[in-house]
Each structure stands twice: as structure tokens, then as C-alpha cells.
Design goal:
Layout lengths: L8 H5 L9 E5 L2 E7 L3 E10 L2 E10 L4 H16 L4 H23 L8 H12 L5 H14 L1 H4 L9 H13 L3 H20 L29 H12 L5 H13 L3 H5 L6 E2 L4 E4 L8 H6 L3 E4 L2 H14 L20 H8 L11 H12 L5 H8 L6 H6 L5 H19 L13
Antiparallel strand pairs: 1-2, 2-3, 3-4, 5-6, 6-7
């Protein structure tokens, strides 16, 4: 037991200013410095650890009385005996309290915890989202907010294991959205790689989980590729009892090889009907943000049938901005569901054809039925060249071939519309 040399608190209270003593020893390293810290007495504890002599402050008197000071000294001695530096322990405890206070403040402010998966993920998103189209970036952050953050968002990013991450992804799988689970895994992997690069994690638990998820079934847009049935669809479009705008859209959609959004947002300023050309702005095409901002417009050569339809439509909507204006709001394009709703009204089910499926129809039948050059078809569909070198050096735009292709396709649709027999053509037709 340590020697208790200070008899009582009464002794300490009896000390007056001017007392010649500098300190009162209580034994085994504990002592009271007199008249320090602005006139108060200060408790100190001297100890030796790892061959170094150190001093620990234990508070001031009278806030820390004799009994409490001895208790603190005893605790410090026990730490030293166990090989723990009391000073280091105090600093670590203080840091934990500061961190907890910051965490509580961030939580109260609706902010993610420092070092948590959510905090790192949002930082990664803020770093990258300027590279993406707004719609694409919005899908990523919503996926994280809905499917990931509620389960592991508060977890320290470095503490998340493959098993824990897989549990979260299994929740997504259980809803039957297998592709979403794979996309979420991809996004989580990007977050973990960012965490490693910024020194907040050492492993990527997403790296080896791809094969642990069910493989998504490749789902293509429903499309008609049988000539007779396509002819029936085209005749149904011609006889559709809708507005002139919708009838024009139904006539042009199978012909022009564009995505529904690219078509319905068409503006008259993009057309040169005399030159039979439509320049679709890069910003409206399906591609990366850089290409949207700085890329060239997509060229659509207009077959004679399309020019005729557009000239007729211009008499109706040419005074406004949009080619396919909305029925109620002429300053807006027609609804994104207009074409599909019209197809349903004509008796063509969603499992047979959708507006986006017209591209697949054209892609398949141009190659298989007409024998047209697939590289020219891909160029007109605005499909990216798969390899980076190809994208860098393929400057061929097939201007003449693409114009011939579009006219050949429009003529073919006319023959199907009339119910004629159409023979397979050779590639020389291009």
C-alpha cells in the first residue's frame, strides 16, 4: 500500500499564501503542488514507464479532494503495472470523446459519421459526378441511398467485410432485381477503391463478390423482327386514330433508328429538310458527359418518306420549338409514354413491341433481311466502337453509305406496309 503522508483535507485547507513549502508529498509518486494554476493547488503523479520518468496531472484542489486524488493515483499505478502509459491512455480517451462529440454533432446536423461508408461514398460521388450525365449520376446516388446506406452507411468503411456487404446485396437480390444488385456491387467497389486510395481502408470487400450473386438475365427490348408482323404493325400505325403529331411519331419511329427520348425531344432548328438531314445534338445522345458536352451532333440522313412526313407536320407544329409537341402543353415535347400507349391501343402488347424496340427491329432486319453492311448500321445507330483504339482512330462516318442505308430501309418498310413480298438483298445495296 502507498504511504499516506498527507493526514487530511483539513491540513490542506490550513495552508495559507506565503507558506514556504512548494509541495506536499503523499507517497509513492503522488504530491500536491501548492499555489499553482492561478492560485489553486495542483495534484501530480510521478511514474516511470518503459525507462522514462513522466508526470501526470490529476486535477486541482479543492475540485479534486484528497480521497479522489489517491483514487486516481491508484488507477494510474495499476495502468503502469500493466504496461499502459496513463498519459497516453488519457490522450486516447480524450480523442475518443472528441470524436464521439463530433459524431453526435454530425448526426444532429443530418451528416454521415466521419470515416463511415456513407461519408466516403458521398465524397467519392462528389469527386466523380461531374464526369457523368445528371441522370446517370442521379441513379447512382439514389441506389446507394435506398439499397446500401440504410444497412452499412454508418459502419466504418474499413470495418466492412465481404460477408457483411454480401448480406446487403442479398437484400436487393431478394426483391428480384438481380441487375440492380450487380450495379450496387459495382458502385460499392468504386467506393472501396476510393477509400483505399485516400488511406481510409486497406481492402476492397467487393472485389471477390461478383460470382456470389445470381447472374442477371439479359433482357432485351421487345421487338418485332418477322416481316409479315412488322407489316401489320406499320399498317396499324397508318390507320391509328390519334392526333396528327402522334401519327407522325408512329410513322417516323420505326424509320429513323433513334431512341424514344432522342426522337420526342426533336426541335425544328435541328432539321434541314431541303438537305434532308437532321443533326441530333450530342447532349441528347446516350453517351458519356464529356461526349455530351463536346461531341459532334449525330447525323441522321432523312429518307424521302421522312422528309414528306416532316413537311406535313411542320405546317402544324413549325411555329413552336418541338417537332412532336405535347397535346396539352405546346411548349413541351409529347409524353415519353405516348408511343408505347399508342402501340398498346392498337393491340400490340408490351411483351411484343415497345418504342425502344424499333432500333432492334431495324438492326436485325437490316442485317438479316437486307444484308446491309453492319458497320454502317452500327454507325447510324450511334453505337460506340468497343475498343478504345477504334474510338480514337475510326474517323469514317460512312456519309454516303448511311444515306443509302436509310433510304433502303424506308423503302423496305413501305413494301412491308403494302404487304408486298420482299426478297433478301445483297450487301451491294449499300
Amino acid at each position: 500500500m502507498p504511504r499516506a503522508l498527507i493526514s487530511s483535507d483539513t491540513l490542506i485547507r490550513s495552508i495559507k499564501p506565503g507558506d514556504p513549502r512548494k509541495r506536499l508529498n503523499d507517497g509513492d509518486g503522488l504530491y500536491l503542488l501548492l499555489f499553482v494554476n492561478g492560485g489553486a493547488h495542483g495534484w501530480r503523479f510521478d511514474y516511470v514507464i518503459h525507462g522514462r520518468r513522466k508526470t501526470l496531472s490529476l486535477g486541482t484542489y479543492p475540485n479534486t479532494g484528497l480521497k479522489l486524488a489517491r483514487t486516481k493515483a491508484t488507477q494510474a499505478r495499476e495502468m503502469v503495472a500493466a504496461g499502459t502509459d496513463p498519459s497516453d491512455h488519457r490522450k486516447a480517451t480524450k480523442a475518443e470523446h472528441v470524436q464521439q462529440r463530433e459524431m453526435d454533432q454530425r448526426t444532429a446536423a443530418g451528416l454521415p459519421t466521419v470515416g463511415s461508408f456513407e461519408e466516403v461514398a458521398r465524397e467519392w460521388f462528389d469527386t466523380r459526378h461531374t464526369e457523368w450525365a445528371p441522370n446517370y449520376g442521379g441513379k447512382i446516388i439514389r441506389r446507394l441511398e435506398v439499397d446500401i446506406f440504410p444497412w452499412i452507411g454508418k459502419e466504418p468503411v474499413a470495418a466492412i467485410t465481404p460477408v457483411k456487404l454480401l448480406e446487403v446485396l442479398r437484400r436487393i437480390e431478394a426483391r428480384g432485381v438481380i441487375e440492380t444488385a450487380h450495379r450496387a456491387l459495382e458502385n460499392c467497389g468504386q467506393v472501396f477503391r476510393y477509400a483505399i486510395a485516400t488511406g481510409r481502408a486497406v481492402i476492397n470487400p467487393a472485389r471477390d463478390l461478383k460470382d456470389a450473386l445470381r447472374k442477371p438475365m439479359v433482357k432485351h427490348f421487345p421487338a418485332i423482327t418477322e416481316p409479315k408482323r412488322l407489316g401489320e404493325l406499320l399498317r396499324a400505325c397508318d390507320n391509328y386514330q390519334g392526333t396528327h403529331v402522334v401519327r407522325a411519331a408512329l410513322h417516323l419511329a420505326p424509320m429513323l433508328l433513334l431512341r424514344p427520348g432522342e426522337l420526342r425531344h426533336a426541335r425544328w432548328e435541328e432539321f434541314d429538310l431541303d438537305a434532308a438531314i437532321w443533326l441530333v445534338p450530342a447532349a441528347r445522345m446516350k453517351q458519356g458527359k464529356a461526349a455530351k458536352l463536346y461531341g459532334k451532333p449525330h447525323t441522321v440522313p432523312l429518307p424521302s418518306q421522312a422528309v414528306q412526313t416532316l413537311r406535313e407536320l411542320h405546317a402544324l407544329t413549325g411555329g413552336g420549338e418541338y417537332v412532336f409537341r405535347g397535346e396539352r402543353h405546346h411548349d413541351r415535347p409529347m409524353s415519353e409514354n405516348t408511343v408505347n400507349a399508342s402501340l398498346r391501343a392498337m393491340g400490340f402488347g408490351a411483351d411484343e413491341v415497345v418504342g425502344h424496340g424499333f432500333r432492334a427491329t431495324a438492326r436485325t432486319m437490316m442485317a438479316e433481311r437486307l444484308g446491309l453492311d453492319e458497320s454502317v448500321i452500327e454507325a447510324q445507330l450511334a453505337h460506340a466502337v468497343r475498343d478504345s483504339l477504334g474510338r480514337a482512330y475510326n474517323r469514317t462516318e460512312f456519309e454516303t453509305q448511311r444515306r443509302n442505308l436509310m433510304q433502303t430501309w424506308a423503302d423496305y418498310l413501305d413494301k412491308l406496309r403494302k404487304g408486298g413480298t420482299v426478297l433478301k438483298m445483297s450487301k451491294s445495296a449499300t
